[in-house]
Amino acid sequence: MWEVVKSVLSAFFGVQREQRRRRDFEQGKPGTFIVVGIVLAMLMVIVVMAIAIMAAG
Amino acid sequence: MAPNLPPKAPLEHSQSVAGSPAAHEEEHHYRSGPLRWLLTTNHKEIGTLYLIFSLSMFLIGGVMALVVRLELFQPGLQMVQPEFFNQMTTMHGLIMVFGAVMPAFVGLANWMVPLQIGAPDMALPRLNNFSFWLLPIAFTLLLATLLMPGGGPNFGWTFYAPLSTTYAPPSTTFFIFALHMAGISSILGAINIIATILNLRAPGMRLMDMTLFVWTWLITAFLLIAVMPVLAGVITMMLLDINFGTSFFNAAGGGDPVLFQHLFWFFGHPEVYIMILPAFGIVSVIVPTFARKRLFGYASMVYATASIAILSFLVWAHHMFAVGLPLVAELFFMYTTMLIAVPTGVKVFNWITTLFRGSITFETPMLFALAFIVLFTIGGFSGLMLAIAPADFQYHDTYFVVAHFHYVLVPGAVFSIMAAVYYWLPKWTGHYPDERIGRWHFWLSVIGVNLLFFPMHFAGLAGMPRRIPDYALQFADFNMASSIGGFLFGFSQLLFVWVIVKCVRGGAKAPAKAWEGASDLEWTLPSPAPLHTFETPPDLRGFKFH
Amino acid sequence: MRKMLVLAALMASVTGLSRAARAAGWNMPVGVTEVSRDVYGLHMVIFWICVIIGVIVFGIMFYSLFRYRRSKGAQAAHFHEHTTVEVFWTAIPLLILVAMAIPATATLKDMYDASEAELDVMVTGHQWRWHYHYMGEDITFFSNLDTPREQIDGTAEKGENYLLEVDQPLVLPVGRKVRLLMTSSDVIHSWWVPDLAVKKDAVPGFVNEAWTRIDEPGIYRGQCAELCGKDHAFMPVVVQAMEQEAFDTWLAERKQEAAAAASGVDREWKLEELVERGEKVYGSICASCHQADGQGTPPTFPALAGNQAMMDDLDWHIDVVVNGVSGSAMAAFSGTLNPVDLAAVITYERNAWGNETGDVVQPAEIQALIDP
Ligand code: HEM
Ligand SMILES: [Cu+2]
Ligand SMILES: [Cu+2]
């Protein structure tokens, strides 16, 4: 699971290693990546929102 | 999903067309008469139809742009009245987005996705035929609105309510119907592409072996399915407001005109990615071919494209900074826009690193791809500037924005399409496109496009609003330069038509592998690719992917 | 070292260029408010960041294109991945942007803080003119484009402020915080003056807030920035900033004029008087849709000349002008025109372009209708 999160985070950042990609595609299920992706995107929304609220403060 | 899933039902279909004797007769029957084109379910023929349709729309939309540029050549009203001017800008935008750029990418996908994944055809061939033929009908209807009483759509391609509802010409209902049809066409096309990519890959080709063109299209197709229904929803609300007395966007009835903009841009921002991700794919295929070197950072490219798809839903209100959003919303959308722009923008570095220490030649497709990298990046830079909300108050709704999105869309998306056409014409026709005319086309287009769009940055900064038929005197020089560039660019496209016609009719014969550095699956097929290919899946043992 | 020098020289000359560019009207104006100067600063910083990144990136690109041509015998290398490099070149722009976000946030907060304003002006967008209401001062007026039609059609020489001139500018005092409340009576407009760095949409049914504090007296010109229909290009914004004293004098004069203009509701008006006054009102308000010759542009804007339904039914005619037609472009004018102007323009419409009804509508009738 942690590996999936790491992969999704590096996707958000936009950089990934060939080796890890190979492993993701050979061992991972697309479903988990999509779910984790959406969850992390929501998390990002919450974090950015919190920053915005604080900045607007 | 199982990567080695053997192709099932669709293959049977293609066998029944090409394999069995009865179907063979049917095929010969198809070959004669115009009905063949009307009824074809062949991915190559449908791809060709899409591309021809797109080119026609590109030329029609281009003529409208030239009407606009002619009027703006000098201050004062010379050629057209404001009513007609607004119809021209609106129709130009609608036609270029929904009629030229999107169908061109779908056409390229039709042709090349099956060839690049070793599939015999698209997964849903009849649906494919249907989704194409919706388009000519939709756009005939859309163009016909110009002849209706009160004229055609005149409220900009973003059709903000209530200008597009309460205050719109009577033809707006037809505009909505046309857009619905184009939207259905896109959704069906997207479903077909997804089904093809996920189910019909040749045995042995895993997702991770696919070319970036196929990857970017897979992701684009998901975006399309996600946002086209939002567009359909918002235009249906318009329809109800106009014809059935509802007040979704009518403040006098308790509605909210700003709601329209939220819905529109929730569709609209992913839509701009729909128009650029396949372009990324094309450039990522062409640059390695002519640099004779593998794409740098394939894995990053795939991951970043996937995440862009999700994150592109979080930035829509950067188009609405001046609409009066609360401060927190303003900050939120400024931050997300900045965050997402970076991983997107730095993909440019991957292409440049691919060039670094390559062995580079400059055939026409490469020229267009290289111009794409430079000029798209300039559009990305102005995008970064627009992301700074306080500064956007000055840029918003000026020619600066017009410059921005034309840089990303014309020398961006459109150049990538031209690059793709030059790149794959040998595969489609069996002949190389004429290099000499191609070069002329390229250089005139590059000069024209920059003369056309670069001065718009200055005009916008100096204070010229967009969508105006007449302007104050201090903007005159910029506009004159733009208009000259516009005509240069516009007329250069006749060379493009010429190259294509010439290439279809003859030219230097192309071998199966038309470009020395090319390595993808389509280049294992003869040129021109026969009508039916990969009827038996290719043997990919030992094939070197990307 | 020599490269550095060349680079520095280049930068210097480009900086000089950018100054020249601004003077020649190629760049964003610095403007005359603290906010506009902040915005200009942000604009230039992000611009230079883009230029520097561009020079580096395109430099490497063109170097590669030049150096690694196959015609020069270049052999392709085989590397195709380097995660550290990728992380590095992603992180740097990210950090730069985070750094940009800090001043941008500060400026934005400043722009949003309209509290403690000393003067409130309600700005209402109409197709296609602005309407200003000095709140608490009882002064309201329309601000119409003042460029003659002949200049637009090219039969007369265009003036210096072509399309950026109005009959009555918005007059504001310098050095005081002015709050602008924006709304619209029809479609969305956007009130924009580049020198003040204020651009805010005027949305029907909503009131948006913006503010400005102008440093120097002068005339500042802008335009409607949101497509609002046919004459979107022809609804400029002109702000005239003056010293407090001059502003007070102006305010007093305007009040007197307004009182004079609204007077006469009670007296009996003659047909000729009303037609004469009505023609002016029609020309500045109604003609943009219904045309100077009353022919309109059907089906969107109906003709008034020879309009039998209108001539037959006086009450309906009055109702349309006073209360508007909901669900159409015809606005209600009871809030923006005084009873005398309303009576005058209705009388004019019933007696112009061959509409010879001979009807006279008295201001008192309209007054009775508006507040009974
Ligand atoms: C670096 C990435 C980008 C950023 C940060 C960015 C940012 C923006 C912003 C903030 C606006 C709104 C400007 C305004 O109206 O005031 C805008 C407008 C626009 N952008 Fe981008 N953009 C980027 C890339 C792209 C790409 C890749 C495309 C399409 C291929 C695109 C197409 C457009 C279009 C069509 C509009 C204007 C729509 C309209 O108002 O008619 N942009 N962009
Ligand atoms: Cu956007
Ligand atoms: Cu307006």
TrEMBL record, chain A:
Tell me where on the tree of life, at the top rank, the source sits: Bacteria
According to UniProt, the name of this protein is: DUF2970 domain-containing protein
Q: Where are the transmembrane segments?
A: 31-56
What organism does the record attribute this protein to?
Modicisalibacter ilicicola DSM 19980
Q: Which Pfam families match?
A: DUF2970 (PF11174)
Q: Does the keyword Transmembrane apply?
A: yes
Query: Has UniProt tagged this entry with the keyword Transmembrane?
Result: yes
Q: Which UniProt keywords apply?
A: Membrane, Transmembrane, Transmembrane helix
TrEMBL record, chain B:
Q: In which pathway does it act?
A: Energy metabolism; oxidative phosphorylation
Region annotated Disordered sits at: 1-25
Reaction catalyzed: 4 Fe(II)-[cytochrome c] + O2 + 8 H(+)(in) = 4 Fe(III)-[cytochrome c] + 2 H2O + 4 H(+)(out)
Alphabetical keyword list: Cell membrane, Copper, Electron transport, Heme, Iron, Membrane, Metal-binding, Respiratory chain, Translocase, Transmembrane, Transmembrane helix, Transport
PROSITE patterns of this UniProt entry? COX1 (PS50855), COX1_CUB (PS00077)
Which top EC class applies here?
A: translocase
Q: What is its EC number?
A: 7.1.1.9
Membrane topology type, per the record?
Answer: Multi-pass membrane protein
Q: Which family does it belong to?
A: Belongs to the heme-copper respiratory oxidase family.
This chain belongs to the protein called Cytochrome c oxidase subunit 1
Source organism per entry reads Modicisalibacter ilicicola DSM 19980
Automatic annotation (TrEMBL), chain C:
What sequence ranges are listed for the domain Cytochrome oxidase subunit II transmembrane region profile?
Answer: 20-115
Q: Which residues form the signal peptide?
A: 1-23
Q: How is the cofactor bound?
A: Binds a copper A center.
Q: Quick one: where is this thing mainly located? A: membrane
Report domain Cytochrome oxidase subunit II copper A binding positions.
Answer: 116-253
Quote one Gene Ontology molecular function term.
Answer: copper ion binding
Q: Where in the cell is it found?
A: Cell membrane; Membrane
Residues forming the Cytochrome c domain are 273-353
Reaction it catalyzes: 4 Fe(II)-[cytochrome c] + O2 + 8 H(+)(in) = 4 Fe(III)-[cytochrome c] + 2 H2O + 4 H(+)(out)
Cofactor (UniProt): Cu cation
* EC number, UniProt record: 7.1.1.9
Which InterPro entries does this UniProt record tie to the protein?
Answer: CcO_II, CcO_II-like_C, Copper_CuA, Cupredoxin, Cyt_c-like_dom, Cyt_c-like_dom_sf, Cyt_c_oxidase_su2, Cyt_c_oxidase_su2_TM_dom
Query: One biological-process term from Gene Ontology?
Result: ATP synthesis coupled electron transport
Q: Where are the membrane-spanning stretches? A: 44-66, 87-106
Its record classes its membrane topology as: Multi-pass membrane protein
Q: Which PROSITE patterns match?
A: COX2 (PS00078), COX2_CUA (PS50857), COX2_TM (PS50999), CYTC (PS51007)
Describe the family membership recorded for this protein in Swiss-Prot or TrEMBL: Belongs to the cytochrome c oxidase subunit 2 family.
PANTHER family associated with the record: CYTOCHROME C OXIDASE SUBUNIT 2, CYTOCHROME C OXIDASE, SUBUNIT II
The name this protein carries in UniProt is Cytochrome c oxidase subunit 2
What is the originating organism of this protein?
Modicisalibacter ilicicola DSM 19980
